[in-house]
Design goal:
The chain has helices at residues 3-17, 19-28, 36-48, 62-72, 88-92, 126-138, 173-176, 190-200, 214-224, 231-245, 265-281, 289-300, 308-312, 317-327, and strands at residues 52-55, 77-81, 93-98, 103-108, 115-119, 140-143, 146-149, 155-160, 181-184, 259-261, 305-306. By secondary structure, the chain is of the alpha/beta class. It folds into two domains: 3-217, P-loop containing nucleotide triphosphate hydrolases (Rossmann fold), CATH 3.40.50.300; 227-327, Magnesium chelatase subunit I, C-Terminal domain (Helicase, Ruva Protein, domain 3). It starts with a helix and ends with a helix.
């Protein structure tokens, strides 16, 4: 069987098995207004077995979007409000003494869920953040002397407020690398704001249907791994990553002074996986350079460590990524 025939067969399968994505978008739109990019990134994280860091001002429907998505896909949801007095045991659970039996039994914490919202993650101290990040990386936690596996569908969606930095514990750059995406959540436009106004002041309960099961998302993960990625697209991804490390080699000597540390190999993997997930959401069996470009900001935004000189000049990571995209040739 030729490669073209294989691709046609895979395309037909993906078109059929990705229909639930459109159903999720349609159902969540009954409650969530706008925020299409946010919802897409949350779905990609589920499809790629990754985690998302959300940055945005209060009241922009971050929690509402996550909770609605959990309801629509029939998944368990838990919300943890991170505070300075939070302990790791409040997150993962602890051992409770049973007076009847005279022994200790485990009480699992809220992290044992499918979608875990870590609200204002930068308000908790480092030891709590480390406990969460360890669970994200290992998909397991230890309570007492016993290790427990987390659910197969397990995604952490952490939020942080970009304006209030007093009394916060910023995530170290090395730990930020564990997040698949860093998504900046913005304001709705005027039309969306009016829909929000009308919808949220009608005092009518909006009911949504559960359109799929977590098993369907897990099955889609395996299918995404089969999506075709041409060698030229792979080379394009690698060139983008290497341009963050050695910008002078792609003719970007001018931005070298802005970059302290470039993207890690984890970024290369994340860019390839999320490009495939983007193709799946678009019902395609192959990856295009546009798929890569559509996710590159959210994949690299938190992975570039800039110099003090860049900060002094008002240069952020997005400006650096933009320069790299303009310079690296698209296949």
């Amino acid at each position: 069987m030729s490669q073209a025939t294989d691709l046609q067969t895979l395309t037909a399968e993906i078109r059929q098995k990705s229909q639930f994505i459109d159903e999720i978008f349609a159902e969540t739109s009954h409650i969530v207004v706008g925020q299409r990019i946010l919802l897409e990134r949350l779905l990609m994280a589920l499809l790629c077995d990754g985690h998302v860091l959300l940055e945005g001002l209060p009241g922009l429907a971050k929690t509402l979007t996550i909770k609605t998505l959990a309801n629509v896909i029939h998944a368990d949801f838990s919300r943890i409000q991170f505070t300075p007095d939070l302990l790791p045991s409040d997150l993962v659970g602890t051992m409770i003494f049973n007076q009847k039996n005279g022994d200790f039994t485990p009480r699992k914490g809220p992290i044992f869920s499918n979608l875990v919202l870590a609200d204002e993650i930068n308000r908790a101290p480092a030891k709590v953040q480390s406990a969460l990040l360890e669970a994200m990386g290992e998909h397991q936690v230890t309570i007492g002397e016993t290790t427990y596996d987390l659910p197969e569908l397990f995604t952490v969606l952490a939020t942080q407020n970009p304006i209030e930095q007093e009394g916060t514990y910023p995530l170290p750059e090395a730990q930020l690398d564990r997040f698949l995406f860093k998504v900046r959540v913005g304001y709705p436009n005027m039309e969306e704001e009016k829909i929000i106004l009308n919808r949220m002041t009608s005092f009518q309960e909006i009911k949504i249907n559960k359109v799929c099961h977590p098993d369907k998302v897990l099955a889609a993960r395996k299918l995404i791994g089969q999506i075709f990625m041409d060698e030229k697209v792979k080379d394009y991804i690698i060139k983008l990553i290497f341009a963050t490390r050695f910008p002078e080699k792609v003719g970007l000597e001018s931005i070298k002074k802005w970059i302290q540390v470039g993207a890690s190999p984890r970024a290369t993997i994340a860019l390839a996986k999320t490009a495939r997930a983007n193709a799946f959401i678009q019902h395609r069996a192959f990856v295009t350079p546009e798929d890569v470009k559509s996710v590159v900001y959210d994949v690299l935004r938190h992975r570039l460590i800039l110099t003090f000189e860049a900060e002094a000049e008002g240069i952020d990571s997005e400006a650096v990524i933009r320069k790299i995209l303009e310079q690296v040739e698209v296949p």
